[in-house]
Amino acid sequence: MSDPSMRRRVPSSKAEQTPVTPYQRHPPPPRRGHPTRSLHISLSLLILGFFVVYAQKHQTFYHSTPTYAKHSKQLPARYAICSKDGQSIYTVPEGEGVGETQCVVVDRGQVVQTGSLGKIRRNWIDKNPLNAMKIINLPQGHTMTPGFIDSHGHPLIYGHSRQLPLHGCKSVAEVIRKVEEFVKNNPLKEGAWLEGLGWDQNIWENKEFPTAADFDSSPMLKDLPISLSRVDFHVEWVSPAILKLLGDDIPDVQGGQVVRDENGRPTGIFIDNAIDMLTAIRPPWTDEDRERYLNIMLEDAMSKGLTGVHDAQGFLKEVPFWKRMAEEGKLPIRFYQMLKCEDEDFCGDKVEQITDPESHYILRSVKLFGDGALGSRGAALLEDYSDKPGWKGFMLKPEEVWGPLIKQWYDAGWQVNVHTIGDRAAHVVLDAIEAALEGHPLETRRNARFRLEHAQIMTSEDIERAARLRVIASVQPTHATSDMWYAEDRLGPERIQGAYAWRSYLNHGGRVTLGSDFPVESIDPLKGFYAAVTRLSEDGRSPHGKEGWYASEKLTRIEAMRGMTIDGAYASFSNITGSLKPGRKFDAVIWDDDLMAVPDDEILDVKVKGVIVDGKVVWGSLG
């Protein structure tokens, strides 16, 4: 097969690039009768009233409850999608490569055959001319891939975060201005907190954490309860009003930090486990809030080509909400959830797993947290931080807890996914995984599918060991391109060699699945695809120039495509998604250009034109 990265598709016409409105927010107006005929007027009003009542009942007019787009003509139970340009459909089979074909035949939401147009005509049309199957042609220059899967995201938190995003603020003053503007337009309800996400002290001039006193500079904010999460969610910056709610005696905690001034008073910064004190007094979400946040996320996710998301922190108390959303048909894409206990280390006996592959909500894994984040120096390192001698970060649980805890979850039949960013966290968790696997049959060990979420910094020995143990590295390529401006300062020139080392992991025979960690990073999977294959910022820069940051660790486009499709399916035990080969669900994305062929600097210009799940168009259109 010729190298697909050397091919170039014919660009789409301008007409074909016209954006498709993703949602029909209002029902079409009823057809009115002649204005001089009172009977027709009455009927029209009656029909209009029916639509209004129906819309209100189903929240059609409510901004955050979308009505998912339908194809202009309802798709039949059986149809084929073909490319006029030849092999412009990527099937991404098990094994290797991306598998190019011209046509895909779909029957009741499942792929039943792939091949050339001639083959499809012979098998499905010539043999049955009286009941010929419909063939839908992709527009010229368009391509189709399996639906993209984000293997690490936070759906509800994403929707919540969109109310006050603080990404890119270059100073405390800029954050304060944004919060003031938000308050002007969104008066705070009684008992509520003002919450936002995205600030990052590493892009500020002094690179220091802010303080509660900073809010006192604003007469508008000084008395309000404000809690702003750092971009990685591992730090919260709160106002004096919230410090007052916590009382005078704010204790230190294991696996976290309450930052204090020279007099021992809390400054308003809470790191990792210390955030639990804020969680205990934070106003809770309602299911109405959750559904609103979910719909915000769904609209953005589908518009970017996502047909599946691995929810990396599904709280136990939220399981009934997710089950209800699935039962009511309100999950147009697939969710694979990692359970997060709240007040205990093991809660696997308090909820039943959901493993029906037909469901759009699967619950069979757990999320454990090994350490914090590199940006806040909470990641647990084996040796001191290079830019903070005497400090190694911290494990969120004592080391002796990990062996029994991981074994308990594994023996109870749960997939175990552990947040590990620092090399010490990875080492401790791999020790625990290795011990948990001892005594189990070889085939059982091979299919355990333990996951290291982030797998960000590892020693070369632990990279080799993780691959040997068949531990999946669940990585986020845009973390590398966000962190590359300060990561080496934190780690030094030697330790950085084992950081964001995706190529090294694959070279040892390991398996990698890709995600974004949205809303920490963008929900757009193409930003991750671009970062994976270039290791450059979106404007083409890196600390090492235009070749990319530690370019030897880049992924190929084939590896990136697989990491966002078939590998995401494997990492969630799915053998019915992630591919367009026969027997798989027809979850697909139609693009207006070819991700495998466009130049690097045009990857982010490729647009989603249609999204299909279970053989049905859920966003955009087929042409």
UniProtKB/TrEMBL annotation:
Instruction: Name the segments for region: Disordered.
Output: 1-36
Q: Which UniProt keywords apply?
A: Hydrolase
Q: Which GO terms describe its molecular function?
A: hydrolase activity, acting on carbon-nitrogen (but not peptide) bonds
* Organism expressing this protein natively: Kwoniella mangroviensis CBS 10435
Q: Name the lineage.
A: Eukaryota, Fungi, Dikarya, Basidiomycota, Agaricomycotina
Q: Name one Pfam family in it.
A: Amidohydro_3
Domain of life of the native organism: Eukaryota
> In what residue span(s) does the Amidohydrolase domain sit?
140-618
Q: Which InterPro entries match?
A: Amidohydro_3, Metal-dep_hydrolase_composite, Metal_Hydrolase, YtcJ-like
Protein name (database record): Amidohydrolase
- Keyword Hydrolase present in the record's keywords: the answer is yes
> Which residue windows are coiled coil?
none
